[in-house]
C-alpha cells in the first residue's frame, strides 16, 4: 500500500515530482529501529529554512488565572524522531501540547512548528499536524470509515482523493476489515487505532499523541505502538507523545523530556537519563547496583512534589472517563 503525502497548498513548499513516495511497512516493527536518530528523516522538506526543527518552544508561558501551567518552557523536537514528553499530572504537558497545536493562543515567537509561527501562521501549522487527544474523539454512532471520512473533511482533504486517503489511513492501522462496523462495537485498542487513522488521514508531518494508550491492556498498548512505528518508519514523520507508561517511553522514544511544574527538568535519551541518575547516586555514596529505571528517573525529577501535582478534579474525571470507555 502506498502512503502518499497530502497535496501542497499555496503556503507550503511543493515536493519535487521526482521524489520517491515511501511505502508503508507491515506493523510489528519496533519504533526507532529504522535508524532515524537524532533528527534524521526520510520525509520531504516541511517548512521554510534549510532544516527547521519539528517543534521549537522558546520561553513558553501559559497561565490559568494566577497559575502558570507552563512556566518558561524551552523545548526542541527534531524532525523524524519519536519524542516523549513525560511528567506527573498537572506538570503542564497537555497545556504545552495545546499551545503547540494552536488550540491555545500564544504570543509570537514562542512556538514554531516546522518553521511556522504558531501565533501568526496557525492554519499552516494545523495543516502539518495530526493530533490524537487524551479524550476520545471517535463517534460511537458512526462506522470506522465514517469517522475517518469526517476528519478528512475537517482537515480539508480534497473530495477527489478523500475516499482513497480514508482507505489508506484505515489500512495503515489494520482496520480495513472492520471499517464498516459501528465504532461502538470496537475494542479499546481498535478505538485508539481508529483515532490514529483519523489523525493520519491528512498525511501529517508531525503526529502528536496525548496519552494514546491510556486504559488499554498490555497487548492492545503494544498493538497501538506497532502501528505508530510502522507509519513513522514508512513516512519519516515526527512523533511527539505524552505518556505515563515509563516502559513505553523507554522502549519507543528516541529522546524524552521530563516536565515538572511547567518546566523541563531532564532531557536526553532514556539510556542517558538512566545512566545519569546512576552516576549521581554513586557520587553520593550509593553502592553500585542495577541501573536505575526510567521510572526511577521520573520519581527523582518529580521528588516530593509528585503527589501535590496530581492534577485537579477535572483531570481525574477526564482520565477515568477515557480509561472506562476504552477499557
Description:
It is a single chain. This protein is of the alpha/beta class. The protein contains ten helices and ten strands. The strands form two sheets. A six-stranded mixed β-sheet has the order 6-7-8-3-9-10, sandwiched between helices. It has a four-stranded antiparallel β-sheet with strand order 2-1-4-5.
Residue fraction in strands: 15-25%
Overall SS class: alpha/beta
Average pLDDT rating: 82
Total helices: the number is 10
What value does the Rg take, in angstroms? Answer: 19 Å
Please describe the biggest sheet, giving its number of strands, its sense, and whether it closes into a barrel.
6 strands, mixed
**Gross morphology:** globular
Q: Compute the number of strand runs.
A: 10
pLDDT < 50 runs, ≥5 residues? 7-49, 306-313, 323-327
Topology:
Layout: E1 55-64, E2 67-77, E3 82-86, H1 93-100, E4 111-113, E5 116-117, H2 122-127, E6 129-132, H3 144-154, H4 159-172, H5 188-200, E7 206-210, H6 218-235, E8 238-242, H7 246-252, E9 255-260, E10 263-268, H8 270-283, H9 294-302, H10 313-326
Amino acid at each position: 500500500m502506498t502512503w502518499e503525502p497530502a497535496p501542497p497548498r499555496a503556503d507550503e513548499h511543493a515536493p519535487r515530482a521526482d521524489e520517491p513516495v515511501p511505502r508503508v511497512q507491515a506493523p510489528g516493527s519496533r519504533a526507532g529501529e529504522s535508524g532515524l536518530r537524532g533528527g534524521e528523516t526520510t520525509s520531504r522538506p516541511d517548512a521554510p529554512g534549510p532544516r527547521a526543527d519539528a517543534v521549537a518552544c522558546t520561553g513558553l508561558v501559559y497561565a490559568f488565572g494566577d497559575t502558570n501551567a507552563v512556566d518558561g518552557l524551552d523545548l526542541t523536537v527534531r524532525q523524524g524522531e519519536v519524542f516523549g514528553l513525560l511528567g506527573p499530572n498537572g506538570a503542564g504537558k497537555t497545556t504545552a501540547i495545546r499551545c503547540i497545536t494552536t488550540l491555545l493562543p500564544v504570543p509570537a515567537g514562542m512556538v514554531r512548528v516546522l518553521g511556522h509561527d504558531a501565533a501568526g501562521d496557525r492554519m499552516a501549522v494545523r495543516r502539518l499536524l495530526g493530533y490524537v487527544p487524551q479524550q476520545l474523539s471517535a463517534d460511537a454512532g458512526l462506522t470506522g470509515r465514517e469517522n475517518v471520512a469526517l476528519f478528512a473533511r475537517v482537515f480539508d482533504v480534497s473530495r477527489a482523493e478523500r475516499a482513497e486517503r480514508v482507505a489508506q489511513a484505515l489500512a495503515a492501522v489494520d482496520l480495513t476489515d472492520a471499517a464498516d462496523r459501528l465504532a461502538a462495537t470496537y475494542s479499546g485498542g481498535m478505538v485508539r487505532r481508529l483515532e490514529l487513522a483519523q489523525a493520519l488521514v491528512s498525511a501529517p508531518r508531525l503526529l502528536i499523541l496525548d496519552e494514546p494508550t491510556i486504559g488499554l491492556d498490555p497487548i492492545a498498548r503494544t498493538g497501538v505502538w506497532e502501528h505508530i512505528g510502522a507509519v513513522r518508519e514508512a513516512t519519516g514523520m515526527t512523533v511527539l507523545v505524552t505518556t505515563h507508561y515509563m516502559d513505553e517511553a523507554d522502549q519507543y522514544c528516541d529522546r524524552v523530556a521530563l516536565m515538572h511544574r511547567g518546566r523541563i527538568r531532564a532531557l536526553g535519551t532514556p539510556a542517558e537519563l538512566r545512566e545519569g541518575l546512576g552516576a549521581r547516586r554513586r557520587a553520593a555514596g550509593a553502592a553500585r547496583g542495577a541501573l536505575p529505571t526510567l521510572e526511577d528517573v521520573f520519581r527523582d525529577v518529580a521528588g516530593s512534589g509528585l503527589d501535590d501535582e496530581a492534577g485537579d478534579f477535572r483531570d481525574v474525571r477526564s482520565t477515568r472517563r477515557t480509561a472506562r470507555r476504552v477499557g
